[in-house]
């Protein structure tokens, strides 16, 4: 019997206030959460803005011990996972834990904690042979990104397949795609899947400065993330985590679960061209879309919304616009396409999970979130990018894409489940 | 006979503290040569641990294209070199496999840490404008997969798995999924090189490392004198293909990945038991074989008494008979993302040459009641190998490798 | 007056991004596009950053994009450091 994988619970810690509700309100209001960086003094940097989450781990229910042990990346993932599991209404403790999996994506692991510890043990960069005696006891948990999945697995009680997927900026989509496969192949019945990243730290800001990937237009932080706009100037760094509960359709129905959507197709491809560069034709992303659509057994006409990568670089905007045309043909011109990075910035590996949650909610509410800050359309781009305001729109099928360093291109297809 | 869609290994390359390249590594391993030595890559005199399995004699100017050296960490240089070697070893003509049917799936444990330490130092001691353009692509966990994909034009469903030291097996399991989804070839494996001061001190804090100064008495898995492990660097890359196309092109087949499973331990302090035994059992079920058909077990061999006891118990419970146990890690140290990948490669060489390497210098603790191969390599009839791996935090994975053809 | 030569550029490139793929670094390659010499956008950003630090000049994004060949780069950098 062929399994079908559905989404039955959602959790999010996004820029702005935590929780799925606040996240969806932000998106549908077309409001931006980008602002001047408050975590450290950003004045020496080229790009001094970020989409920060107003996240207090203690207020979200983590114990002082957990707060001390976990980097912010892990804290956000655990909080998002708890929300997703509660939302799904599934009692994981009453099930065989060996049948529960965890799949977490992250591009840069515990960067914040690692950097702050580095500063301590190196005496602010003065020592190469850093001082081990000053390192915090849990530093190894920061050193290995696998900790992020371990913390979630401990918290939800999973003893099945547990892993971190770290494919740069497609990590979120890829981790959830992996979770889907675990259920399809029968390795797990329920997978708590998502992604998390908290990269707003001097070293990350500096490394994107060095390649001029982030926007330097610091005088208007709230409107600095401008995908598909002629005045775009690079991405705005973000942070956050989103987690979803995935399970087999029949099992979800049997327990009377609310089903947001079916995760019908997923595929990843690589451009094998350049670690950061994209060719304008979008061939590889188009191939990923084509394969995901085939798995989903959907036609271009079944896609009602495209959640774009839309990072805010000219290179990306051209690349994915061409990928949509190449894979969906004439339908590409009729489907609303938007980038929520215009509102919540680019949280690297986490963003794909936040985007998939937004896609599930678009199906749930029949609302397409907008591309904020899109005032001056780029004349070279000729699709419907849903400028400024959310749109009431029947959404039964969604395509969500991601593109990242390493040349990775990923595509996921979601659709409404009808009884 | 195995099915035509079974995943088989047709090529590999190894970069290890005991040898670079298959034959150098394998002859050193069979001879029981130790790769654990005083650390030379940085001044470790101020640290409580001063030994490691360093790779000596790796010349990146020969093994890695000049353009890629300044933009990569040592872990990626190992991956690029080993991927080249593995493809050559496989004798696969890549032009016969469509670009979208070639994928790379690697394990990564901690990223390009040495590169990262240099850039952190530039940032904090000199200023943000001193952080180089390559930091953005050199330190992250996807660097190895990305660079290898670009170098060889692998445009398929690429991946990066982080499950600490279980990663090499989980990457192979993921590679097998990618093959099942239609790929024609997958490069898999893992390489690690976290031996810089900043990477090293994070490991010191776990309390799991041996603080001994005598290299021959430091990392002694399953020994009554076990007192922790030592880190190492390096790893292996392997070429995986479906058996049908490998056989059709007359490829040399080292062995098949006939079974794989993974699982996660309950939280620390939980009354529930660790899952290693269950995971091993599921891998055998996946392979469709009984424990009686396993000829040798490659142990995780943690080197700390409690973890060794737990693994020995899992092996005893699963087999209920003395099964030969190999722990070649004793010679190299634990290579993190590279460790289980290297064990896979070593297990394939066991299948090739019908001999089990000894854990040199180790005396098995009789209380553990396992048949650990020590003293000298042991010739044996080997058709099936079970490889076990555990990663920090509770990751467990098991893989079953079998010779194709006869039963 | 400080001047910046083809040789200086070659040295920074080699250190920052490796030797050119064509092997030679001389006047014959002055007008070859950087990408034909095997240097990509990241290499040019790294080289620009290093030169910028050495001569205490800020090289704007547009200028990096416009530096398509060694000749253009050497001329641009000379113009900047000799006082424009």
TrEMBL record, chain A:
The keyword Lipid biosynthesis does not apply. One of its GO terms (molecular function) is 3-oxoacyl-[acyl-carrier-protein] synthase activity. Residues 2-416 form the Ketosynthase family 3 (KS3) domain. GO terms for biological process: fatty acid elongation. GO terms for cellular component: cytosol. Keywords: Acyltransferase, Transferase. InterPro entries: Beta-ketoacyl_synthase (IPR000794), Ketoacyl_synth_AS (IPR018201), Ketoacyl_synth_C (IPR014031), Ketoacyl_synth_N (IPR014030), PKS_Beta-ketoAc_synthase_dom (IPR020841), Thiolase-like (IPR016039). NCBIfam families: PRK07314.1 (NF005589). PANTHER family: 3-OXOACYL-[ACYL-CARRIER-PROTEIN] SYNTHASE, MITOCHONDRIAL, POLYKETIDE SYNTHASE-RELATED. This is Beta-ACP synthase. It comes from Paractinoplanes tereljensis. The gene is fabF_1.
From TrEMBL, chain B:
PROSITE patterns: KS3_2. The keyword Lipoprotein does not apply. Pfam families: ketoacyl-synt, Ketoacyl-synt_C. Keywords: Acyltransferase, Transferase. InterPro entries: Beta-ketoacyl_synthase, Ketoacyl_synth_C, Ketoacyl_synth_N, PKS_Beta-ketoAc_synthase_dom, Thiolase-like. SUPFAM superfamilies: Thiolase-like. GO terms for biological process: fatty acid biosynthetic process. Gene3D superfamilies: 3.40.47.10. One of its GO terms (molecular function) is 3-oxoacyl-[acyl-carrier-protein] synthase activity. Residues 4-403 form the Ketosynthase family 3 (KS3) domain. The keyword Acyltransferase applies. Belongs to the thiolase-like superfamily. Beta-ketoacyl-ACP synthases family. PANTHER family: POLYKETIDE BETA-KETOACYL SYNTHASE 2-RELATED (PTHR11712:SF322), POLYKETIDE SYNTHASE-RELATED (PTHR11712). This is Actinorhodin polyketide putative beta-ketoacyl synthase 2. It comes from Paractinoplanes tereljensis. The lineage of its organism: Bacteria, Bacillati, Actinomycetota, Actinomycetes, Micromonosporales.
UniProtKB/TrEMBL annotation, chain C:
Keywords: Phosphopantetheine, Phosphoprotein. InterPro entries: ACP-like_sf, PKS_PP-bd, PP-bd_ACP, Ppantetheine_attach_site. The keyword Phosphoprotein applies. The keyword Phosphoprotein applies. It holds the Pfam family PP-binding. PROSITE patterns: CARRIER (PS50075), PHOSPHOPANTETHEINE (PS00012). Gene3D superfamilies: ACP-like (1.10.1200.10). Residues 3-81 form the Carrier domain. GO terms for molecular function: phosphopantetheine binding. This is Actinorhodin polyketide synthase acyl carrier protein. It comes from Paractinoplanes tereljensis.
